[in-house]
Write a structure and sequence with these properties.
- The protein is globular, with a radius of gyration of 17 Å.
- By secondary structure, the chain is mainly α.
- The longest helix is centred in the N-terminal third of the chain and has 16 residues.
- Helix content is 53%, strand content 9%.
- The protein starts with a helix and ends with a helix.
- The strands form 2 sheets. Strands 3-5-4 form a 3-stranded mixed β-sheet, with no helix packed on it.
- The chain is built from 8 helices and 5 strands, in the order αβαβαβααββααα.
């Protein structure tokens, strides 16, 4: 998702009149794979002459777990950067977030899902599905790497992504788009 966002912003930078740079945070959670991801980002940005800001930390599980600790470390690094910070959250991510909030118990704010804009944070891909992102990358022949932890069932988001979302999509193939649109209306 992040590579698709970077490529889209690269293609649109003149039209949008933006100065593009990228950021990568190495959580150091997956050994050589984490280093591979960082090297991939460095090579991609170097190939297209995109300035890259790197951050790193030894992330340890906190009170709310490893996933929350990693998010806090990553967002802490991103907050040190100037300008708008675009993240590559998609409609699928938004639907998963709404489901996570439902599972844990939520109110109207939780049903609003991921904020499209929140201070310096912008999420321009909330209207795009994961399938659209993959098709976009394929159309432009853009390589990407995948975090292997996305394939495990260790985290609630992954369990919802692997087991619950496919069942719900059998009922409505446009589930991610519909839940994301609902979240935006509630917001």
């Amino acid at each position: 998702d992040s590579v698709a966002l970077l490529w889209a912003m690269y293609l649109l930078q003149e039209k949008l009149e933006i100065t593009l740079s990228a950021a990568h945070f190495n959580h150091n959670l997956r050994g050589e794979e984490s280093d591979r991801d960082q090297a991939f980002c460095q090579q991609l940005c170097q190939r297209y002459d995109i300035p890259l800001y790197l951050g790193s930390a030894e992330v340890k599980p906190g009170e709310k777990g490893l996933e929350a600790a990693a998010r806090e470390a990553r967002y802490g690094f991103f907050a040190t950067l100037s300008g708008k910070i675009a993240t590559a959250h998609t409609a699928d991510d938004n639907a998963e977030t709404v489901l996570m909030h439902l599972v844990r118990g939520t109110g109207l704010k939780g049903l609003g899902g991921i904020a499209p804009v929140n201070g310096q944070w912008i999420r321009p891909m909330l209207g795009c599905t994961r399938q659209q992102v993959l098709a976009f990358l394929q159309e432009y022949h853009i390589d990407f790497v995948e975090d292997s932890s996305n394939q495990t069932n260790q985290f609630l988001r992954n369990r919802l992504r692997h087991h619950v979302m496919p069942l719900l999509k059998e009922e409505n193939p446009r589930l991610a788009e519909k839940v994301s649109a609902m979240a935006q209306r509630l917001r």
